[in-house]
């Protein structure tokens, strides 16, 4: 059985980068609390992880589109008496299309998930960790937050928030025993693009330069454990951010737009 009683709470832990991060923690004998919407997917992930690594896995099915959901998760965990040693904010979604044609209610949900849930979980657990003088927080940002994102305007905006938010709270809390790490993946081969209705985008359909979720998770896990502030996963993504920082935003926006155009080139189609 688990040789340690350390526990990591992971949002979006049933698929993609979140699921791979769960594996990284389980390999190091962390007990896990996985938070996602679908109970069936949670049960399956929990069963696989328990069988492979022999750690305890608790699941909490919550819809993080709802503003009160992170508070409810926090209260439920608190009531169980479990101390969260590591918080992983991973759950995130996007929506593809020109901003004038996309669904505003879906976008408000995405803002709540990608920003609201991150901010709420981070505040609640950061306060606890500061009280103890130790703890770790991993924010899954994105290189999307470093680039303008035509056809994914709201998603890129939410990730720009996460990247800026991370830098601010890292500075506020340095030398207080709590590590806050921002992981910036690029295009990664996950279910994200199906949920974003983005499978027909050129760069997604061609899988050009796409990262493997397991590699991204390893990069993030390593950086978190080493106490690093930020890690851009993948050489090509590092190069893209470096080049983009040197170019005018208008040029970067045009390039991103070109790369993510739909193969059928009908941008407003749904």
UniProtKB/TrEMBL annotation:
SUPFAM superfamilies in the cross-refs: NAD(P)-binding Rossmann-fold domains (SSF51735)
What's its EC?
Answer: 1.-.-.-
Q: Name one Pfam family in it.
A: adh_short
**Which ranges carry the Ketoreductase domain?**
6-190
Q: Which InterPro entries match?
A: KR_dom, NAD(P)-bd_dom_sf, SDR_fam
GO MF terms, alphabetically ordered: oxidoreductase activity
Q: Which UniProt keywords apply?
A: Oxidoreductase
Q: Does the keyword Repeat apply?
A: no
Q: Say which family it is in.
A: Belongs to the short-chain dehydrogenases/reductases (SDR) family.
Name the chain's protein: SDR family oxidoreductase
Q: Which organism is it from?
A: Hymenobacter endophyticus
């Amino acid at each position: 059985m688990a040789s340690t009683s350390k526990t990591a709470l992971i949002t979006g832990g049933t698929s993609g980068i979140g699921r791979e991060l769960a594996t990284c923690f389980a390999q190091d004998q962390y007990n896990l609390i996985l938070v996602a919407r679908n109970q069936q997917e949670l049960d399956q992930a929990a069963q696989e992880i328990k069988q492979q690594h022999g750690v305890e896995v608790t699941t909490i099915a919550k819809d993080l589109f709802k503003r009160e959901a992170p508070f409810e998760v926090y209260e439920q965990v608190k009531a169980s008496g479990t101390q969260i040693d590591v918080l992983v904010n991973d759950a995130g979604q996007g929506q593809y299309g020109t901003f004038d044609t996309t669904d505003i209610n879906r976008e408000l949900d995405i803002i709540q998930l990608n920003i609201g849930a991150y901010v709420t979980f981070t505040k609640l657990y950061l306060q606890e960790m500061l009280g103890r003088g130790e703890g770790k927080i991993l924010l899954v940002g994105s290189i999307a937050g470093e680039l303008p994102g035509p056809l994914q305007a709201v998603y890129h905006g939410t990730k720009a928030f996460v990247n800026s938010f991370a830098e601010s709270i890292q500075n506020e809390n340095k030398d207080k025993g709590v590590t806050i790490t921002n992981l910036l993946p690029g295009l990664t081969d996950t279910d994200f693009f199906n949920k974003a209705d983005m499978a027909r985008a050129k760069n997604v359909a061609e899988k050009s330069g796409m990262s493997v979720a397991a590699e991204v998770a390893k990069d993030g896990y390593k950086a978190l454990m080493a106490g690093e502030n930020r890690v851009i996963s993948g050489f090509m993504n590092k190069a893209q951010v470096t080049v983009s920082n040197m170019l005018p935003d208008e040029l970067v926006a045009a390039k991103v737009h070109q790369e993510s155009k739909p193969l059928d080139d009908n941008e407003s189609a749904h």
